[in-house]
């Protein structure tokens, strides 16, 4: 809903080459920010708390068991494989549809 009018404005203001760069940078920056915000988890926070406590000569908290799967458990989980395969199928179908939407 927002991208087509934005694209038209960018093309009018900067030409199609500038619009291509603007859209790429816009999506790249926004998605990089989203990916970076989810890059760290509870394991990293617990490690930082233990490191800070040790640096300040405080009592180091005991490591607690955190919920989650190990990498090998995640690779052998059929539910995660089904999610990955369905996501792949949706992306292939979407790309196939996008290619055939526009004519030269």
Commentary on this structure:
With 104 residues, the protein is mainly α. It has four helices and no strands. It has helices spanning 3-37, 42-55, 71-76, 78-101. The longest helix is centred in the first third of the chain and has 35 residues, at 3-37. The chain is flat, with a radius of gyration of 22 Å. The model has no long low-confidence stretch (mean pLDDT 86).
Short description:
The protein has 104 residues and is mainly alpha-helical.
Proportion of residues in β-strands: under 5%
In terms of quaternary structure, the protein is single chain
Query: Structural class of the helices, strands and pairings?
Result: mainly alpha
Overall mean pLDDT stands at 86
Per-chain topology:
Blueprint: H1 3-37, H2 42-55, H3 71-76, H4 78-101
Write out key terms for the chains shown:
104 residues, 76% helix, 0% strand
């Amino acid at each position: 809903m927002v991208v087509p009018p934005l694209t038209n404005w960018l093309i009018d203001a900067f030409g199609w080459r500038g619009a291509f760069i603007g859209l790429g940078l816009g999506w790249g920056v926004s998605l990089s920010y989203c990916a970076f915000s989810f890059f760290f988890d509870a394991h990293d926070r617990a490690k930082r708390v233990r490191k800070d406590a040790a640096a300040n000569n405080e009592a180091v908290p005991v490591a607690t068991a955190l919920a989650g799967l190990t990498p090998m458990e995640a690779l052998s989980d059929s539910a995660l494989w089904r999610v990955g395969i369905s996501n792949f199928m949706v992306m292939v179908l979407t790309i196939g549809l996008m290619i055939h939407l526009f004519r030269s």
